[in-house]
Design goal:
The protein is an all-beta fold. The chain is 0% helix and 60% strand. It contains no helices and 11 strands. Strands 2, 4, 5, 6, 9, 10 and 11 form a 7-stranded mixed sheet that branches.
């Protein structure tokens, strides 16, 4: 299976920046999409940003203009650059990858990394 290892979380002041990384390893066939989700305590996990195989990206309205998702195919790594952070961005951030064929797709999740934004 594909394993995802996340890094880059931490504590920052409002207005600061963080860069999250998610490195994929294992038996990787074709990756259809990669994305970042986040979950605050007592809240449902929500989609933050996605990047599909051809490079197109999508963002939640709450992070548009502030967050940027990117990838390095040679390193099998996806990044989330987070700028102008707000306290409401505080959450555990999870990396996700969807891979396989159209006949059978698989999904793997990272372990999560804590992002805390202070006022």
């Amino acid at each position: 299976q594909v394993q995802l290892v996340e890094s880059g979380g931490g504590l920052v002041q409002a207005g600061g920046s963080l860069r999250l990384s998610c490195a994929a390893s294992g038996s990787i066939l074709s990756i259809n999409a990669m994305g970042w989700y986040r979950q605050a305590p007592g809240k449902e996990r929500e989609l933050v940003a996605t990047i599909i195989s051809r490079g197109s990206t999508n963002y939640a309205d709450s992070v548009k203009g502030r967050f940027t998702i990117s990838r390095d195919n040679a390193k099998n790594t996806v990044y989330l650059q987070m700028n102008s952070l707000k306290p409401e961005d505080t959450a555990v951030y999870y990396c996700n990858v969807v891979y396989g064929t159209s006949g059978q797709l698989f999904s793997s999740w990272g372990q999560g990394t804590q992002v805390t934004v202070s006022s």
